[in-house]
Amino acid sequence: MRSIETLDELFLKVFMFNPCPMAISNIDDGKYIAVNDALLYILGYNKEDVIGKTSLELGIMDNSDRKKAIRLMKSQGRLRDFEILIRCKNNKPIHGIFNAEFITIQGQPYLLSVMTDITVKKQLEQDFIYLEKLNLISQMSAGISHEIRNPMTTVRGFLQFFMQKPAYAYHRNYFELMISELDRVNAIISDFLSITTSDPLNSAYTLQDLQELLEQLRPIIEANALEKRNRMLYCLANTPKIMINEKEIQQIILNLVRNGFDSMPVGGTLIIKTFLQENHVVLAIQDQGKGIDKAILQKLGTPFLTTKDYGTGLGLAVCYGIAHRHRAKINVTTSPQGTTFEVHFPLAQSDE
């Protein structure tokens, strides 16, 4: 039969070297008395930062979440599969599931909590929901666009026919306006279709240097900056070539650049960067606007979502569709000082 000392030593080893993030805290005031290395690693803290502090003092969880957890503990005697959003030292959010038990150590009651990081699982769920929406949009758009474009083509043809008649020469400007509006509707339909197209018409993928591609677009971007009375700054690094569809990546660059210019007041600076981060080539476009509202941030990439009076809400949706086809990931960071869109292209594409 094991002695108490041996069991205590065994418990300590299981606690400290457990791959699951674990903590022991006082029941009354919630102060941590012990944390294992897995928890410190995931939160980004040193042991000295945590011991003697509470989760509220460290900003790990909201007060409402803690109160709810305590209420469940008191009513059920334990905590099972309690899902909350926690924040690390660098303010990075992590989705976690907590399980907790009351334990006794040397005659004193404490709370033992174990956390499971489900951030990746949550992201995969969101990606799956997004893909399901894209599939639904794709099925709807294929039929709807065909039905809309056929009568539009007929109307456009008759407008062009009547515009040439001498009897309507005085109204030529009106005919041109109607034709241009039909062309604008057709362009919106094309943008809408490009969100979900898995095999675009221009489907050639080649090894490209992102820096060279941005240099080719420099005159267009400079013209946009001049039109908006803003400035632009290139900070391009030498990065490996990646396998991309040139026309589509040009579109994603110009869409993000125009959004950046539109978000800034006169005199603002748009910064365009490229750099290598781990196994990704990153394109970053940083503006000096007022930032993106938190409620909007969660919905970026949703078709027809826009805060512009004149926008269609398809620009960012197109960008997310292109990124998905390139197996790239778009990360967004925003604050009242500006917003940065980062497109992470995996290097593995060049091997394929």
From TrEMBL:
InterPro entries recorded: HATPase_C_sf, HATPase_dom, His_kinase_dom, HisK_dim/P_dom, HisK_dim/P_sf, PAS, PAS-like_dom_sf, Sig_transdc_His_kin-like_C
EC number: 2.7.13.3
One Pfam family recorded for the sequence: HisKA
Alphabetical list of CDD domains matching this protein: HisKA, PAS
Domain PAS: 29-56
UniProt source species: Sporomusa acidovorans (strain ATCC 49682 / DSM 3132 / Mol)
Residues in Histidine kinase domain copies: 143-349
Reaction equation(s) it catalyzes: ATP + protein L-histidine = ADP + protein N-phospho-L-histidine
UniProt name for this protein: histidine kinase
Gene Ontology MF term list: protein histidine kinase activity
Gene3D superfamilies tied to this protein: 1.10.287.130, Histidine kinase-like ATPase, C-terminal domain (3.30.565.10), PAS domain (3.30.450.20)
Organism ancestry: Bacteria, Bacillati, Bacillota, Negativicutes, Selenomonadales
Keywords, sorted A to Z: ATP-binding, Kinase, Nucleotide-binding, Phosphoprotein, Transferase, Two-component regulatory system
